Amino acid sequence: MSSPKIWRQRIERYRLLGQKCKDCGKVLFPKRLVCSECGGREFDKEPMPEVGKIITYTTVYFGPKFLEQDIPYILAIIELKNGVRITTQVVDTEPKEVKAGKEVKFVFRKLKDEGKTGVIIYGYKAQLC
Ligand SMILES: [Zn+2]
Questions:
Q1: Which CATH code of 3.10.520.10, 3.40.50.11810, 2.40.50.840, 2.30.130.60 fits the domain covering 50-129?
Q2: Using one digit for the tens of pLDDT, what is the confidence trace for 64-88?
């Protein structure tokens, strides 16, 4: 991900801020230019709930280079209380502790260190409640 894109997405990324379509009420996260439900282009800001539950997950043994130090790690699809689904890493736990249906909360963590540019990217990950 490029540094300008990270800068543009910083508010959503750091505050779990999504949007609600003014035409049909569909809640979207991350932000989009066009509503996936009705094609509307006008939105209100909509904060995402900070808790959700694990729908499904997998244990990753071969991941991208920047996550090498986390292997093996859990990658899960989390459904928030408003129905929005987010794919993210589940941290601070052993793979055997993770089960579908378990509650998680979002925590703010380092996602990636871009090395040469010196840019360190932060964002949300999930932690068992
Ligand atoms: Zn809509």
A1: 2.40.50.840
A2: 887 888 889 999 999 998 999 999 9
Q: Which residues fall inside 5 Å of ion ligand 1, going by CB?
A: 21, 23-24, 26, 35, 37-38, 40
CA 43 to ligand 1 center in whole angstroms: 8
Radius of gyration of the chain (CA): 16
For residue 47, what are its two tokens? 């904060």
CA distances from 29 to 48, 99, 126 (A): 8, 24, 16
Query: Domain-by-domain residue ranges, the chain?
Result: 1-48, 50-129
Enclosing H/E stretch for 54? strand 51-60
Q: Any idea of the CA torsion for 99, 106, 88, 124, to the nearest 10 degrees?
A: -160
The pTM assigned to this predicted structure is: 0.80
Question: What's the gap in Å between 80 CA and the centre of ligand 1?
Answer: 19
